[in-house]
Amino acid sequence: MLMRNMAYIGQYYKDGKLVFEGFNVAGDVGTFSAQKAGAFSATVNWRGNHRALDDTLKNLGYALLGRFSIGMLIRHGFEKAENFQEAVRIFSTKPIDVLAYIILAGTKDYEGMIISRDHDGFVHLDQLSATNWYLAQTNDDHFTGACQTRCTLEHQILDGLGQSGVTKDTLLNNVLYVCPVLNRLTSYTVMFNNSGAGTFDSYAPNYDDTCKFVY
User: Given pLDDT bands bounded at 50, 70 and 90, which one contains residue 79?
Assistant: First the structure.
């Protein structure tokens, strides 16, 4: 709730020209979700055992070594990359101080990817293809076969909708805002359309008593 109350959409300019827009939290110079209209967008999801002390200590150690925070990596990628492929290279290779999933989308066919990151690079890449029309990510390493309650429900709903049944409204109301896909660890939701001038919508979820703390 605190993060939600401190959030805003920032616009990043260079030489008087808008470079990208990003979802920011006051006090943090990085950005966690961003869009370069007509080119690509990206957002971040947690990865790893976030309640484990050893993970926290490792992340702190890497931060003290001066590695990118995940927010600064996203900002750096949007400052430097001009297209989807350049963004993939930056987001999959630059050393960072935490584990994360980076969900990346472009404007062309099959320009959609989930980059599962460790501290030094990517551990797995999932990409859209002719036989893989959607990608869905929760907080599990799906590539290892881990797919818990939220992941399973997400796939069931999307498979039931089918590609022709996917719209902005069905994604938001029939997938992202269905508990426990939505839960009390969900800080915010963003939806991008990268084509042309682009659209960037952010939402603060409303929870009820059925939405639990579920990874």
Answer: very high
Task: Decide if 74 contacts 68 (C-beta within 8 A).
Answer: no
Quick check: 197 pLDDT over 50? yes
| 6-39 burial code (b ≥16 CB/10 A, e <16) | ebebbebeeeeeeebbbbbbeeeebbbbbbbbeb
More confident residue, 29 or 59: 29
Q: How far apart are CA 38 and CA 31, in angstroms?
A: 19
- Picking from 178, 183, 173, the residue whose alpha carbon sits closest to that of residue 211 is 183
Q: What is the pTM of this model?
A: 0.89
* Tokens (6 digits) for 159: 């498979």
Give pairs for 107-115: CB < 8 Å, separation 24+.
107/38, 107/39, 107/40, 107/194, 107/195, 108/84, 111/40, 111/84, 113/88, 115/88, 115/91
Long-range contacts of range 122-128, CB-CB < 8 Å, 24 or more positions apart? 122/92, 122/93, 125/92
Question: 36 has which bridge partners?
Answer: 40
Residue 215's closest CA among 162, 142, 160? Answer: 142
DSSP 67: P
Q: Which of 31-35, 71-75, 122-126, 177-181 has the lowest mean pLDDT?
A: 177-181
Angle (CA) 175 181 185, round 5°: 135
Angle at alpha carbon of residue 14, lines to 10 and 20, rounded to 5°? 40
Domain boundaries, the chain: 2-203
